[in-house]
C-alpha cells in the first residue's frame, strides 16, 4: 500500500504552537523511505499517525483504503494489522515475560488459528535471524540488538504490509546495526515490505533508503533521491 500525507498539522493539547506544520509526503509501495531530522523536529509524532496512535489536528493521511484524519471514522484494529510500528526503545512495547508470550499476544488478539500460532511465531523469529531457543527467554534480559529483533518479530508475526521504525539502530553497536540494516533490506527484497525509517543518523539512511525526506521545525524542507538530498 502506498501512503499519501496531505497537509498534515498536529498540535498537542494545551499547547499553542503546532508540532507539524503542513506535512506533505508520498510514500511508494515496496520502497524504503527515510525521514531525517534532529530531535524535536516532529519525526516521532508523524510516525505515530501512520497507525493512528495520534490523529492529525488538520489534514489527512491516506494508507491504501484507510483515511486518518480528525472526525473521520477509521477501523483502527484493521489498520494496525496492516501497519506495524516499532518504537525507538523496544522495551517500551514489551508486555510479556517470555519471547513466546510476547509474539503470541498479537496473534491471539486477532484470533489467529490456534493450531498454527507456534509455527507462525518460529517463522517470525527466523525472519529476524533468531532461533527457537529464544522462545523461553525474557525479552527484557536480551541485548539491545536482540530486543530490536524481537520487537520487529512481534510486528512481523502479523505480516503487515507496512513497517514503521523509529530510530531502529539507536543504542546498537556497529555490528548489530549492520546486521539490522541487512535484515531490513531482506524484508524489502524478499517480502516486498513498504518500510518507513525515521532517524537523525544520516549514515544509516544513506545506506538503506530509496527516497528521503528532511524535516525541520515541523516542516518538510527537502526531499528526493537520497544521493541528491545528502549531497
Your description of this structure?
This protein is of the alpha/beta class and 231 residues long. Helices cover 34% and strands 26% of the residues. The protein has helices at 43-49, 76-82, 99-109, 117-127, 144-156, 174-191, 202-208, 226-230; strands spanning 3-10, 20-27, 32-36, 58-63, 66-69, 83-86, 162-166, 194-199, 211-216, 219-225. The strands form two sheets. A six-stranded mixed sheet has the order 6-7-8-3-9-10, sandwiched between helices. The chain has a four-stranded antiparallel sheet with strand order 2-1-4-5, covered by helices on one side. The mean pLDDT is 92.
Strand content: 25-35%
**Major sheet:** 6 strands, mixed
The strand line-up of the biggest sheet is: 6-7-8-3-9-10
Described by the principal axes of the CA atoms, the overall outline is: globular
Supply the helix-strand structural class. Answer: alpha/beta
Provide the low-confidence segments as ranges: none
* String of helices and strands: EEEHEEHEHHHEHEHEEH
Structure in a nutshell:
By secondary structure, the protein is of the alpha/beta class.
Q: How is the topology of this model organized?
A:
Blueprint lengths: L2 E8 L9 E8 L4 E5 L6 H7 L8 E6 L2 E4 L6 H7 E4 L12 H11 L7 H11 L16 H13 L5 E5 L7 H18 L2 E6 L2 H7 L2 E6 L2 E7 H5 L1
Parallel strand pairs: 3-8, 3-9, 6-7, 7-8
Antiparallel strand pairs: 1-2, 1-4, 4-5, 9-10
Helix pairs in contact: 3-5, 4-5
Characteristics:
26% strand; 4-stranded antiparallel β-sheet; 6-stranded mixed β-sheet; alpha/beta; 8 helices; 231 residues
